[in-house]
Amino acid sequence: MTQNCEMKLLGSVGSAFVTRILFVFKLKSIEYEYIEVDQRNKSELLLKSNPTLQRVPVLLHADEHPISESLVIMEYLDEIRPDIHPLLPSNPSERAQCRLLAYTFDTLCYPWMKEFMITREAKRREELTQLIIGGYIMLEEAFEKLSKGKAFFGGDDIGYMDIVVGSFLGWTKFYATIFNFNAIEEDRNPKLTKWEKSMWSHEVARSVIPNHETHMDFLNMIISKLPSLPDSA
Ligand SMILES: N[C@@H](CCC(=O)N[C@@H](CS)C(=O)NCC(=O)O)C(=O)O
């Protein structure tokens, strides 16, 4: 991370979506400047760059139009640096599968995981546990098809789906510690269990996935933004 780069990333430490972009920067050896956004007090720069969604990550690349949404940013970076560590498979059908899987993960699994973290109801947390388990079983099947017996979704090295799911590995580890719930268990997910080990042994994954304390700070920040409970009589 340097200053005065033509590539700037607006992010919030602890966000798995931001972690995805850090993965790509590292894998593709892209220099960037990181600009932290305080989620409790969003900066003018964020509101100007992503006025509709007002979320991080946002990529500012020289004078180009700002780009938001982690999956869109990942593909953009892959297109402008196609020769260094390509992320998506070269086969169009496999590319389509990856995009669909990423979309499914983000629109189903992520909201379940987020709600799991903030719900105050034990019954709802149990329902969400089952939904998340189902999501990771779906990923287990997808891993089998895409990895073709190799260590990563991307084959011999980290690819697009490894980043999409791997960006949440810090969070799944955090859930195991704090909530005693592991989304990836050997009996349900034998292949993903091995994949998780391969990811944690990868230097880039270890360097970009935030640690336990960062996740704890992020959780506290999310809780502080929740409406307070009405006083019980
Ligand atoms: N689908 C988006 C999700 C981004 C997202 O949810 N970012 C969160 C941080 S983890 C955020 O900025 N939230 C602020 C808000 O919703 O007000 C992506 O892939 O980039």
Automatic annotation (TrEMBL):
Q: Name one GO biological process term.
A: glutathione metabolic process
Q: Which GO terms describe its cellular component?
A: cytosol
Q: Does the keyword Cytoplasm apply?
A: yes
Keywords, ordered alphabetically = Cytoplasm, Transferase
Q: Where is the GST N-terminal domain?
A: 5-85
Stored Gene3D superfamilies: 1.20.1050.10, Glutaredoxin
Q: According to its UniProt record, where is this protein located?
A: Cytoplasm, Cytosol
Q: What is its main location?
A: cytoplasm
Asked if the keyword Membrane belongs to this entry, the reply reads no
User: Domain of life here?
Assistant: Eukaryota
List residues of the GST C-terminal domain.
91-218
Q: What is stated as this protein's family in its record?
A: Belongs to the GST superfamily.
- This protein's name: Glutathione S-transferase
Native source organism of the sequence: Deinandra increscens subsp. villosa
Traced from the root, the source organism's taxonomic lineage reads: Eukaryota, Viridiplantae, Streptophyta, Embryophyta, Tracheophyta
